[in-house]
TrEMBL record:
Keyword hit for Iron-sulfur: no
InterPro entries per the UniProt record, alphabetical: CbiM/NikMN
Record key words, sorted: Cell membrane, Membrane, Transmembrane, Transmembrane helix, Transport
Gene: cbiM
Annotated localization: Cell membrane
Lineage: Archaea, Methanobacteriati, Methanobacteriota, Stenosarchaea group, Methanomicrobia
Gene source species: Candidatus Methanocrinis natronophilus
PANTHER family tied to this protein: METAL TRANSPORT PROTEIN HI_1621-RELATED (PTHR34229:SF1)
Principal location class: membrane
Protein name as annotated: Cobalt transporter CbiM
Amino acid sequence: MVHISDGVLSSPILAGGFLLAGAMILLTLRDVKAEEVPKISLITAAIFVASLVHFPVGPTSVHLVMNGLAGVLLGKRAFASVAVALTLQAVLFQHGGISVIGVNAVNMGIPALIAWQIFERRRGLSSPKREVVFGAVAGGFAVLGATLMLSAELLLLGEAFREIAALVLAAHVPIMLIETAVIGLAAGFLQSVKPEMLIRARGSGYGGA
């Protein structure tokens, strides 16, 4: 899972994670409009539910991440959505832990914001499949980015965590491929039937395509 657990990181790092996550939430929710709240809530619920379905991979298990979906559908609001979903996971099911909510939110939220920026670049492509292409790239990168951030943090903890970091990265390759396909197809489908669900290109991070 793309979570660091309680008891692994030092107090200064945990405090820094909360400070950075809090600042990012305030920044990305600035000027949020009332009509955005239902959509944010819906995607937050989707991320939360996705985490409940686990797939065994070797000695561990993984679950869908869906931070790329948040980036594609919510734009800059994705960070807050991911943070709330992680908080619910930690409080209700002890995924990760309370003390690492900030760090985990940063690990998953920043790649979600990069996925948003990747998806916005679709305007530079004239192909009718541009939403599929950029949605797929955004979805895959979001999982890869979160996994790389987690693996890097584990490596910084010392030699003892090297094998765990490698396992985390390898275990999430299938998830990255699944989300590449699912989010690409979802973006293409929404563009066909409900394009207003997709974020605006070069817009404020909400609204239609």
